[in-house]
Design goal:
Length: 153
Amino acid sequence: MNTHSHDIEHAHHQNTLMTSAQSTLHCLTGCVIGEVAGLLIGVSLGIGPWNTMALATVLAYITGLTLGVVPVSRREKVSLIEAFRIVWIGEVVSIGVMEIVMNAVDYGVGGAQASSVLEPIFWIGIALAVPAGFLAAWPVNWWLIERNLKACH
């Protein structure tokens, strides 16, 4: 490999790392909105940690997919259904990885088992789960983008 092609490959790799980091942050934003809403509702209603995490996951998918679909629909000037077809694989995989890791960390710390959202452990669980979700999903998003399985928005 000559120096020029090595430089091009390095630039592509750097660009994909940055693009995947931005995509992961965008996806995380949607996930966190739903995740925190679900945790707040579940803990406030006292529905138990497993039901709370299930609710948080469902809401994370709803908000995460919405934040993925709407920008693509506007940018590509397509219907929301067509935008969903464009983004669904990448978003479902990315959100899934984030949710598995975020719920595992939150449960492990004790946040999902808190008896009240006023307990510090509830917020400590979220504070530790969010960066863990990002770190888990970033390499997954990089892989998806490298293989053109994730549309960036």
